[in-house]
Every structure is written in C-alpha cells, then in structure tokens.
Amino acid sequence: MTRFQSCLAHARALLILGLPLIGSNLAQMALHVADTVMLGWYGVEALAAVILGASTFFILFILGAGFPIATTGLVAASIGAGDQTQARRATRMALWLSVLYAAAVMPIMWWSGPILRLLGQDPHLAALAQDYLRIAGLGMAPALIIKTLQSFLSAIERTRVVLIATLVSLAVNVALNWALIFGNWGAPELGLRGAAVATLATQIVGAAFLGLYAAWLPALRPYALFLRLWRPDPEAFVRLWRLGWPVGLTGLAEGGLFNASALMMGWVGTIQLAAHGIAIEITALAFMVHLGLSNAATVRAGHAAGRGDLAGLRDGAIAAMGLSFLFGLVVVVLFLTRPEPLIGLFLDRANPRAGQIVAFGAMLLAVAALFQLFDAAQVMALGLLRGLQDTAGPLWITVVSYWLIGIPASYLLAFPIGLGGVGLWLGLTIGLAVAAVLLVARFRTALRGPLPA
Fold it and tell me: Which residues cross the membrane (predicted)?
C-alpha cells in the first residue's frame, strides 16, 4: 500500500468513527444554541444574562472535563493493547473525579453574582446570571458523567449511541425550553429560569441514557463498568489526575480566551455583547466539526500507540489534518459571504435593536474567518497529542498562546488602540495562530520519540 493509499484508508476510518462524534458535538452545541435562540426571542436582556451565565458554567465545565477527556486516550491505548481491565479502571476513576469536581465548584456558581460584578458586569445582568447558574449549576455532575461515558464509548468505537443520546437530549431540551421559557402547554412562564430548568433536566436524561446503555448492553458487560463502583482505585485515580488536570487547564486556557473576550465585550456594550454571543455560537458550531474529527483522531492515535504502530500514527495524523483543513476552507467562504443571514437566525427581526446586532455580528464573523484554519490546526494537534497521553506540554503552550499573548492582544487592540469589539476578536486570532504553530510542531517532534506504553 502506498503512502497516499494509506492516508486515504485512514481518512475513511476517521470519518466512520468521527461522523457520529461530529453529529453528537453539533447536537450538543445545538442545546446551547436552542437556549440562545429562544431567549433571544424572549428578550435581549435575558439573552445577555444567559450568555454571562452559560459562559461561566462552560468555563468551569471545561476545567472539570479534563478528566473525562484524558480517559479517551487511556481507554483507547488500553483497547489497542487488548487490556479491558485498564479501560474499566480509568473510566471508573473519571466518574469519581467528575462528581468530586462538581461538588467543589458549586459554591462558585451559587454566589456568581458578586463575582461577575467584581469583573465589571452590569449588576442587574449579574443577578440574572446568578439566578440561571443556581439552577443550571446542579447539572455539572451529570454533564461530566455524560462526558466520561461519551469518552469511554468513543474509545471503544461505540460512537453511534453517543449521537443518539445527544439527539434525545436535544429534543428534550427544546421541548422544555418551549414550555418553561414562554409558558406554553400550560407551564409557568419562567423566562431565563425556565431555560436553566430545561438544561438541568436534559443533562440528567442524557446521563441516565448513557449509563443504562453502558450497564446493560451485552457486548459491554465484560467491562463491568459499574460493578463495585464505590471501591477506590488509588493507582488509576492518581494516573488519571496527573493526565487530566493539564487537559482541563488547557481547555481553561482556550475557554478563558473566549470568556475573557465576553467579559470585555460587556464593557463595550449590551448590543455588542449580544452580537458577540451569537457570533460565538456560530463559530462554535463550525468548531464542533473540527472537534469531532479531533476526538476521532485521539482514539485512532491511542489505538496506534497501544499497538506500537508509528506508521499508522503518522498517516492517520496526515488524514486528520487534511480533513479538518478542507472543512475549514468551506467555513471561511460561508462566513465571508453569508454573515447577515447567519446572525439573523438568532433574533426576532421585530426587535428594534436587531439591526444593530446583525450589523456588528457580521463584522465579527468576518474576523472569525481569519482564525478558522488556525483553530482547526490547534484542536487537531491537541487531539493527536492526547492520543499519545501528552497533556502537560500542550498545557504550557496554550497558557502562553492564549493568556500571555491572546488576551493581552485583545485588550490592547480593543481599548488603547480603539478597535472595540472587532479588536477583541483580532486578539483571539493572534492567540489561536500562535497555539496552532506550536502544537503542530510539538506533535511532529513526538513522532520522532518512543510511543507511550
């Protein structure tokens, strides 16, 4: 088989594994889009508040998701080496760490109002965001449990059920939003609080669905995932902790870049913050495709590492990067040619401020077109490195790229230089570009070293 044929074979395998993950990521993102769209119909103030609240929840979730994400590489390498016991041990301790982390961060969400005020947000919006988080924050544990079970099932190539579970959750979320935000079907009109209740209920349903599948499917019973779940496993716990916390902090570094931009956009104005939230949702939808391919690349890289297959690892990486690059080009064209219709999908055109939001959001999508390929490259390199259980090095790369370069660049371009919200997004582009170059270089270096055991 030639090198080209090998890359094509890896591309086909990546798509078979990755398409359900892409669909699942898009459906998961659609959960947040549904909240944004329906609250945008409900009112601009509610939309701005939920952007603050959801951004806070997301940044805490990303930090805790490091343990479930690290599970993917560990389980994939164990499966590649034919060791089901290690796969079970890693997954169990990821469930432990998920629940412990959720309990630890609940006070932050419960008293988020004063924190947001200290960060310069409007006191009324901060109070509304706190109302949202006091309900939605209870969903942190089931959300992380979902992520852990998704990682386990993806690593053993059971990706279709991950997609099905997410689609079921999406249907539940939309129905509950329609009832509880607006007071339809005889339900009380709860507005922003209704969106929070819908989100919490959706996460509980998703965790129960995947848990029952993993426990009762005959093909998965040999893993005995929940047998004596209460028993501690110190060795697996410590190993997952060491791999997982850098992954969480890496996600925090990237998420912090966007969350800081949301906070700074709040200093610019409510219209700009609403447009920023919508543009972020749109770019995140495109990013979900890259993330799905990255998740599949983690699994494939972990399997190759477990087998000791360096050639397969190399050709699979080329295929993953190529697929992500091609999709990135499509997104660039879309953002540059159809920005206004995309932004308009999230708004009631009868709202007197809708035109201002659409105009500003279109400018942000033009900037987003600049960083699409950088964003694709950095997340793909991260996925490949996680398949090799390399998590500490990427952490420092992202901290430097996002916190020491991206966020200061955003602030300087937006305020001292005077570019406003557009300057904030140009700073994001700079941070993502630096991260992409350094992470790809690290993976190329890793190909010259020994594969992890």
Answer: 12-31, 51-81, 93-112, 132-149, 161-183, 195-219, 240-267, 273-296, 317-337, 357-374, 395-417, 423-441
Asked if residues 129 and 112 have their Cβ atoms less than 8 Å apart, the reply is yes
SS (H, E, C) the chain: CCHHHHHHHHHHHHHHHHHHHHHHHHHHHHHHHHHHHHHHHHCHHHHHHHHHHHHHHHHHHHHHCHHHHHHHHHHHHHHHCCCHHHHHHHHHHHHHHHHHHHHHHHHHHHCHHHHHHHCCCCHHHHHHHHHHHHHHHHHHHHHHHHHHHHHHHHHCCCHHHHHHHHHHHHHHHHHHHHHHHHCCCCCCCCCHHHHHHHHHHHHHHHHHHHHHHHHHCHHHHHHCCCCCCCCCCHHHHHHHHHHHHHHHHHHHHHHHHHHHHHHHHHHHCHHHHHHHHHHHHHHHHHHHHHHHHHHHHHHHHHHHHHHCCHHHHHHHHHHHHHHHHHHHHHHHHHHHHCHHHHHHCCCCCCCCCHHHHHHHHHHHHHHHHHHHHHHHHHHHHHHHHHHCCCCHHHHHHHHHHHHHHHHHHHHHHHCCCCCHHHHHHHHHHHHHHHHHHHHHHHHHHHCCCCCCC
Half-sphere exposure in the Cβ direction for 297 (13 Å, CA): 32
pLDDT in tens, 270-307: 788 888 888 888 888 888 889 889 988 998 888 888 77
Closest among 36, 147, 158 to 98, alpha carbons compared:
147
Angstrom distance (rounded) from CA 38 to CA 175: 11
Report the alpha-carbon distance of residue 423 to residue 56 in Å, rounded. 22
Which residue's entry shows tokens 């959750």? 169
Burial of 41 (0-12, 13-18, 19+ CB in 10 A): middle
Q: Where are the domains of the chain?
A: 3-446
The whole-angstrom separation of Cα 291 and Cα 346 is: 23
What residue has token string 């109002």?
113
Query: How far is Cα 426 from Cα 371, in angstroms, rounded to an integer?
Result: 9
pLDDT in tens, 202-211: 999 999 999 9
Amino acid residing at 207? A
At position 249, the amino acid (one-letter code) is L
pLDDT-based confidence at residue 354 (cuts at 50, 70, 90): confident
d(CA 309, CA 81): 11
Name the nearest CA neighbour of 243 among 65, 434, 80: 65
Residue 340's CB is within 10 A of a number of other CB atoms, namely: 12
